[in-house]
Amino acid sequence: MVKILLWLSLFIAFIGLxxxxxxxxxxxxxxxxxxxxLADLDKTASTSTKPLSTQEARVxxxxxxxxxxxxxxxxxxxxxxxSERNLSQAIVVQEEVLRKMPAKTQTKIxxxxxxxxxxxxxFYDQSLEYYVGRxxxxxxxxxxxxxxxxxxxxxxxxxx
Length: 160
Description:
Strand content: 15-25%
Structural class: alpha+beta
Radius of gyration: 21 Å
Largest sheet: 5 strands, antiparallel
Number of strands: 5
Strand order of the largest sheet: 1-2-3-4-5
Number of helices: 3
Order of helices and strands: HHHEEEEE
Distance between the termini: 60 Å
């Protein structure tokens, strides 16, 4: 029984490691692809004889299910009523949410003055922000239709 559990845990660890390495390689490949695209775009723009007004703008295609996924993850985040105030836990919160988001989601943690901080996730025109301030915890998101949603948990004992 112990051998089975040991093999099972090794198998799970191997799958987890494989996923991390695979995700890293995909991200690295995507970054190289973007750099190459930008270089090609610059090269084309410098050798092109067309005026800029007639050149076609590059449009990224966004799958509807990815937009829906982002909105669904944001909705779940709002329903959790998370009130983590410790900046050292920001990375844990950031990664936990990012794992559920579409692959092209961007994120950053901002440390602000007066011990305030925020985590910001973006996916094209959609966004989610988790803001910890002096007076409470605030959420804000913009959904795929451009509508803004807010939630706040104000401190009863505000720091004046």
